[in-house]
Amino acid sequence: MTTKNTEDKVPVAITIAGSDSSGGAGIQADIKTFASLGVFGVTAVTAVTAQNTVGVFCIERLKPEIVLEQIKAVAEDIGIDAGKTGMLYSDEVIKTISEAVSEYRFPLVVDPVMVAKSRVPLLKPQALRTLKEYLLPKATVVTPNKFEAERLSGVKIRRLDDAENAAKRISELGPRAVVVKGGHIHEKEAIDIVYYEGQFRRFQTPRLSSKTTHGTGCVFSAAITACLARKMPLITAIEKAKEIVWLGIKYGLNIGKGHGPVNSIALFYRESSRYQVLINVDKAKNLLESSPEVSALVPEVGMNVAMAVPYAGNITEVAAIDGRLVKTFKGVKAAGNVKFGCSSHLAKYILEVSKYDKRKTAAINLKFSEHILKILEDRGMVISFFDRKREPQKIKIVEGKTIPWGVEKAIKRIGKVPDVIFHRGDVGKEPMIVVFGEQAYNLADLTVQLAKEIKNEYE
């Protein structure tokens, strides 16, 4: 008989909340967020809802004793390292959860859900007092948005100073920490106010204009819960949750007719893809090095092939060949290894093009030739260009601005995102063709085919 090593125990987090049939909020969003942070998720369902991105159409609450039995079943077998609450609906359920937290003693994140995004009430009016008296005193952290913070504190929030006042008032109800989320506070940036251990902190991110915000609060509180289950410090947990939500909104899922869901696994998907991206670019490098014909397509500045992780935000998330591919007597040879952050040129192209088409995460640069462009066009590739000689001086004098400007011009020229963008150069600037795709290896294979086709034409 084998026994489990306690050091190998997977962190466990419980979500005590409602079920969202559309999968964007509630326990469904929580479970996905837990998993993205390496935490095993368990549930205690408080209510079943029929809802989608437009609204909530039906709520069927579960009896308090059933909620308690769910918590008990999990706690007494698997164990609970941290928990969170979402939609609780009634004062009876709130009292039941309070008793369970006292008995099983796990860190608790309270997301004081009161209304749905469609303004449907998710907490009975009389349950607000019960929430304040029975659950907040046992919370490790409570995470209200502006409207929830106003109801919990009695403070009207118009500015950040008001949010700080509200956070302090809420802390007097007993939670160790309070996070007043800044998504609904009218500032240029989304600034969350944190009150913890008698001190205020502000966590800010650029404000995003998006309709993919369904489940924002659930994902935020779930991320904090997962981090606490992993024994992270509370402030670190809040910072991590802020990052996950911001990225999840930026790359939200545009589904349904209303507010689409936050992409709660965007950060996980980006981080977990790094190894596969390196392997893909390395295979592309090896293919190009094994094909002598490719040397005919290498620009004077050298050739590179690059690929970004999903949802890349900067050049450190784009892998390429360090030092590029250079011509040799036998073909082409990589000057260095495949690394992240070593090609600002192609990285800038990928980062800019992927803003318009998320599928285009790879690129390769080729020597400019009208003949190469004709072959690419014959293969059905969409081609556009920009004129570097028309680049405004205010753009030209700023390092790194040319490529974003050029990509925008090339897209506007044809009204869609091309597969190929070229320019005919300028004084001191070599003409260039850049081909885009979904994988670096596929672009390398295309390049080998082009090189062989051109070679055969001259034999």
Any overview of this molecule?
It is a single chain. This protein is elongated. It has 459 residues and is of the alpha/beta class. The chain has 2 domains: 8-267, UDP-N-acetylmuramoyl-L-alanine:D-glutamate ligase, CATH 3.40.1190; 274-457, Class II aldolase/adducin N-terminal domain (L-fuculose-1-phosphate Aldolase, 3-Layer(aba) Sandwich), CATH 3.40.225. The model has no long low-confidence stretch (mean pLDDT 93). It is built from 15 helices and 18 strands. The strands form 3 sheets. A 9-stranded mixed beta sheet has the order 3-2-1-4-5-6-7-8-9, sandwiched between helices. It has a 7-stranded mixed beta sheet with strand order 14-11-10-15-18-17-16, with helices on both faces. It has a two-stranded antiparallel sheet with strand order 12-13. It has helices at 26-36, 64-75, 91-104, 127-135, 146-153, 160-171, 216-229, 234-250, 266-272, 274-289, 344-356, 370-378, 393-396, 402-414, 440-457; strands spanning 12-20, 40-51, 56-61, 82-85, 108-110, 141-142, 177-180, 189-196, 199-206, 305-308, 318-321, 325-328, 331-334, 338-340, 362-367, 383-385, 420-423, 432-437. The longest helix is centred in the C-terminal third of the chain and has 18 residues, at 440-457. Strand 5 (108-110), helix 4 (127-135) and strand 6 form a beta-alpha-beta unit. The relative contact order is 0.09. Helix 1 (26-36) packs across helix 7, helix 3 packs parallel to helix 4 and helix 10 (274-289) runs parallel beside helix 15 (440-457).
